[in-house]
């Protein structure tokens, strides 16, 4: 969870061409599957795609991330840039020490060209028997768990004849060197 502080004061609303008074407040934000699901239900498009989001869409995602109750909607339009930087850093944080090799990334259950939506992530959770309470985890941590489960559930790739011969030759060479023999 991330906590950010919105300072109070009077701000000029360029859209309405008037001054708006904002009360200071502390917002608690959670980048989770629940947040993504809320955002996608409003905007009817995938949040996790690489396409650029408008300022309105990004501010609305911050609103979807907010777990603080009874927040004035105007507050979200006046988040200071320093706090926006903290939010972006929080969203980008992997929240785990787990990492994947390129082979694991390629063989993990997700297609690289697949459009990832909240429903697809829920499907992965169901297919991998991940409990629904994980939907409130930081999204990057949940995605890492999905990758780990997918990799662990994938049967090992069968080796080609060439790879088997290469491995056996390597093992034989190591044994000959260790035992100081010629054959």
Structural description of this entry:
This protein has 183 residues and is mainly alpha-helical. The chain has a domain at 2-92. Helices cover 46% and strands 11% of the residues. The protein is built from seven helices and four strands, in the order ββββααααααα. The protein has helices spanning 33-43, 55-65, 81-92, 102-107, 118-127, 139-153, 161-179; strands spanning 2-6, 9-13, 18-22, 25-29. Strands 1-4 form a two-stranded antiparallel ribbon. A two-stranded antiparallel sheet has the order 2-3. α1 packs across α5 (118-127).
What's a quick, concise take on this entry?
With 183 residues, this protein is mostly helical. Helix content is 46%, strand content 11%. The longest helix is centred in the C-terminal third of the chain and has 19 residues.
Annotate the secondary structure layout.
Layout lengths: L1 E5 L2 E5 L4 E5 L2 E5 L3 H11 L11 H11 L15 H12 L9 H6 L10 H10 L11 H15 L7 H19 L4
Antiparallel strand pairs: 1-4, 2-3
Helix pairs in contact: 1-2, 1-5
Question: What key attributes describe this structure?
Answer:
two-stranded antiparallel sheet; 183 residues; 7 helices; mainly alpha
Largest sheet: 2 strands, antiparallel
Number of alpha- plus pi-helical segments: 7
Beta-strand content estimate: 5-15%
Summarize model confidence as the mean pLDDT: 88
The assigned structural class equals mainly alpha
> What's the count of strands?
4
Q: Ranges with pLDDT <50 over ≥5 residues?
A: none
**Can you write the helix and strand succession as a string?**
EEEEHHHHHHH
- What is the spatial order of strands in the main beta sheet? 1-4
Shape: elongated
